[in-house]
Write a structure and sequence with these properties.
96 residues; mainly alpha
Length: 96
């Protein structure tokens, strides 16, 4: 078929089939949750809920290991003193 005899693209059977198709394309379905294409927007003045590593209980041995120290009694004691002195800030510096 030559270009002169070909119907316009919008009148082709393929386009008509695509228009009639109401089925969602699985590649475009997000599951309804927020993602990169569908972010959640906050209302003006609303603060985001941020979670840090310090929101859970930490033992001195956990902090020592998170810092990359061997869990020797000396390092665990050093981590205990740091937790006692700095509290959540000691954890947030290591595990933000």
């Amino acid at each position: 078929m030559t270009d002169e005899n070909r119907p316009p693209l919008e009148e082709s059977p393929e386009v008509a089939d695509a228009i009639e198709d109401d089925v969602a394309v699985s590649a475009f379905v997000t599951g309804g949750g927020p993602d990169a294409e569908n972010p959640v927007f906050l209302s003006p003045g609303e603060q985001p809920r941020l979670r840090t590593g310090a929101e859970q209980p930490w033992e001195p041995v956990d902090l020592a290991v998170a810092k990359g120290w061997d869990p020797t009694p000396e390092n665990i004691e050093r981590a205990r003193r740091e937790l006692e002195r700095d509290g959540a800030a000691a954890i947030e510096r290591t595990v933000p």
